[in-house]
Amino acid sequence: MVAKGDLIYASASDSGILEKGECGGAVTAILKSALETGLVDAVLAVKKGYDVYDARPVFITNPEEIAETAGSLHCGTLLTPKMIKKFLNGARDMKIAVTLKGCDAKAMYELAKRQQLNLDNIYMVGLNCGGSVAPMTGRKMLTEVFEIDPDTVVKEEIDKGQFIVETADGQHKGISIDELEEAGYGRRANCQRCKTKVPRQCDIACGNWGVIGDKAGNTTFVEVCSDKGVDLVAKAESNGALKTEAANPKGVEIRAKIEGSMLKLADKLRAKQFAEMGTGKERLNFIMDETSRCIKCYQCIENCPICYCVECSTKKGHLVTPGQVPPPFMFHLIRYSHIADSCINCGQCQELCAMDIPNALYMHAIQIEMQDMFGYEPGVNMDLPLLALVEEPTERKRLSDTGSDQIFDIFQEE
């Protein structure tokens, strides 16, 4: 019987799912079983749209439709948690299973802390993630580096340090991720900096790292991280949807080494990318220069999972001059200060910026400095962020009553 903390190999019992699913189809089998057994009312996942560069969110209540979500999409850069908040009432009135990358999982926790989601009703199916590729970057990379027509690609994957594609005529080609990134392609910059490769915040964390021998390629490595994770796997086992066995100890060791290597690489790339901005006034001038291209389209705010205010301070005329484009730097300062302690480095503010401003780089750099100073790491558990310790309504009333803008009397004499 599966238990919390178990490391297992799993694969689908259904031959159709086994063939269509990634690494044995365990995730597809678990999601289908959760719907069939009534463990959840619906599944929120991602499926291929027009092509491999078109990742589409899909809300499923019919178990037979789960197979549409099988397989991986490394050129899909969606973030699903805010969809649950905006369109599914924060899972307050239904139980939902959702597939999540590391940044998705961290966003779930941060939204839950802000009472925007009901985590009790959400079953989090984590997917190990070495990083994703922006769709347009992917197409350009395939054209210029792989010398392949991107429209002929039917499948892509990241495996053994390579980005590998398969074309409609059955050809395979792989190039080293390191080589691609040295040339300015490959994974998104925020993915290169990410250190949440195995999303243990989820109820289960699934991937192919550590699957060895004859199991490689047709089995999923599953880490059971919570009691809800136990329920997901146990239900799938009991109704015959899933075959499991203890993970090979050598595979466990290899998985840990892969994760460790990726974390060291992330540290190296963080240092490199942050250093390129300079420090002190040099960094401030760099940010001000880059953000001077802003057209105030609000995509950074609309798509940030931490931004949830009904009334955004950037739309208040006494703080940000209305109708001014580019907006004054105060527009960006408000946003930075609002989420400085809780940025999860998902990259949505950069991915969807109409002017290609590297917003995620600034936000992540600020967040890491605050993390080093105060010890708060966003999205890893339900500990509250620093600014949550201020009761906003009470503090606003005090400021209004006293006319003071000083929250803490830090200049009091000894």
Automatic annotation (TrEMBL):
Keywords recorded for this protein, A-Z: Iron, Iron-sulfur, Metal-binding, Oxidoreductase
Start and end residues of each 4Fe-4S ferredoxin-type domain: 284-315, 334-363
Reported cofactor(s): FAD
Pfam families: FrhB_FdhB_C, FrhB_FdhB_N
Gene Ontology MF terms: iron-sulfur cluster binding; metal ion binding; oxidoreductase activity, acting on CH or CH2 groups, with an iron-sulfur protein as acceptor
Stored InterPro entries: 4Fe4S_Fe-S-bd, 4Fe4S_Fe_S_CS, Co_F420_Hydgase/DH_bsu_N, FRHB/FDHB/HCAR-like, FrhB_FdhB_C
Superkingdom as given in the UniProt entry: Archaea
Official protein name in the record: Formate dehydrogenase
Source organism: Methanochimaera problematica
